[in-house]
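ok so I'm stuck.
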Amino acid sequence: MINNEGMKHIIQYSILALAIAAAMWSCNNEEAQPVQYKAPEVNFTMASDVIAAQVGEPVSFSASVVSGDKVSVGWYINDVLVSGSQTFDYVFDQPGTYTVRFEAHNGAGTVSHTYTVNVSDVLSIRLSVGDSTTVTRLQLEYIMVAAIVEHGSDVVHEWSVDNVVLGDEAFFGTYQMKEARTYAVHYRGSNTLGVYEKDFQVVAQERPLEVSFSITDEIIAILAGRTLTITANPLFGTTGLQQKWYLDDVLVSETAEFSNYFVSGGEFQLRYEAENAKGEKFSRNWKITVTSTGRLFDDFETGAIGSWFNTGENQPGIEIVENPDKTGINTSDYCLRDKVYGSGGTSGYFTMKCPVMLSAKEFDVSEYSGIRFMVHIGNNKYYPRIDHGGTKYPSVTPPKFNNSWEVLEYRLPEGKTFDNTKNIVFRMLYTEAGSNISGSDEATNNRTVYIDNIEFFK
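replied:
not stuck anymore, here's the structure
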């Protein structure tokens, strides 16, 4: 049986337990309450809700969060998140209208603001040569340059060289610099937004010395009695160019052309040398093999004329004289001259008596079908022909009338040879039509022709 004192202790313990339980319940109940956030507060610092911008230029956006707990921010351009900062810069690369939205939010709420950005196009062009004012290239190259449109549309391009408009595309590469010099290039690009222009120069440097030739074979085979002509064609590096030709180490020409009449057979060495003002050198060698195919009558150096030549058909007729022009292809000291006095019509007969050749020289013309005469006509407009068996044959090529020695060649028809019973008459004073020369004067018809190196060939 519990006495009063025991009951008192029990009541005290019960009250204490209840107090402890109440306290514990109170603590647990406070932790379960939701956190109370403070909603964001934002100052929007942009001057206007409508912003004008240009393609390629940065636009600065800013918003200031002045209060709020654990606030998240974001900038959206056309609903695409582009930044998580309160301020940022953005470059629009295409023209158009853009919606830019700022949002700040936490558990207590969201604050947003929208801007409209109108982005206009701009004209921005750069050239592939960059900032260069002088570009160096080689002669014969093409000027190649491009206009790179970074911003802008419907651009009209214009390229000019030395003030001449030559192109209307963004890429210019059609102009070849044929000369070694400086070319002035101008570019102009324009559209409704503006104009871009740039000037620069292209220095075309002279190419190294280079020469081509009309005959490229290293070994050249020709027949005796023919003239070999080789022409040098300097392609590049021609400033101050000096050219020389050597035949068997003997200087024979200081021009672009080598021309030599080869009288007889043999082997010859030909060398070309060139040097320009820059000291660049160029050389080329040939071996010339000359084959004799006929019979040459060139012994006029003895001062005697063979019995097979009829020398008295005109006055004074055929004579041995000094060579009037030893600077060309004929360097002989002596040659034949046919000079016809008087003013009547004449063809200047010079007869080669074939029967006498056969008996005195044991030379049978029937083995040959052609004959060459080296002649010097001077300034006379003569077209010599040969007459054999009553038929008159013109030269294969007409006279050059270059007031120097040249070779006239005559050929019989295919399959025919000379008849050793009939004479060959060289009729030097013919007109182009094949008629005798009538009258005379000292300028273009002095009736004088020089002859040398008569050669029969097969």
